[in-house]
Amino acid sequence: MFVFAQQTAEHRKFLESSMKSSVAIWFSCVLIVSCLCCVATGQETATLRMKFAVDGSVPEPKSISNVNDAYCAENPLVSNKLLVGKQGELQNFAVILDEEKSKLKIPAELLKAPAATHVLDNVKCMFEPKIIVARSGQTISVKNSDNTGHNANFNFLKNPPTNFLVPAGQSKDLSLKPDLVEPTAIPIECNVHPWMKAFVIVKQHPFVGVSNADGVVEISNLPAGSGAVFRLWHEAAGAIDQVEVNGKSQKLSRGNRLELELKPGVNDLGVIKLNAKLLKAD
Prior knowledge:
- It is built from one helix and 18 strands.
- It has one helix spanning 2-41; strands at 45-55, 94-97, 117-123, 126-128, 131-135, 139-144, 150-154, 162-166, 171-175, 186-189, 197-203, 208-210, 216-223, 225-233, 242-245, 248-251, 257-262, 265-275.
- The longest helix is centred in the first third of the chain and has 40 residues, at 2-41.
- The termini are far apart.
């Protein structure tokens, strides 16, 4: 019995040692294959980071008057077209990779959008969020958290224009066409409550960023390289021919386009300032 137990223990140790060796070999093979794939594609990635700020003073957001709905009138309504922080931080500024103008090579797998649903809610008679970033073929679910009816009028240029009612407490889905992109930010309006407005940006690629309350935008996993062209967009801005990047003047090409060289790793542009005269609150 003792001999048998000893043999069994030795056999167990042998099996455990063999399994560890096999696992180590397997991980080594995976690592080698991964490295070979990286070498084969030669694709390095970059992160683009910047902060938008307003140079100059802008008017305070205006209160919305002539509210034609008793439910909506229960809470003070203020315009969210131009939201600027105490230090000039500019919110809801979109940075969009222009795939047609750019020289960057976007890997084919990054042009295949995963299934996803983006929620646009009606909250206290305002759309939330202000800007939705979606990809071709994905779904937008319009939710109504209010105790009054709304409609959502999508003024698409490429996808079929869509307008539907969303009763109180309900929701309705909209499917974007898998092969269509929108050339600009598309307005979404509630015609029942004309002050309500949001936007949707629809691209095949994932390289779109929108500034937060701190004015910060970050876009990750971009292909590194020269000739990256980004379109700058804000609801309150029209044509932008010039901005200030970390204290230096930077001209933009037609269509508010900024061309950059993206180096592997983090590309921090610092603070980008817009002249307050370029922004219109109304």
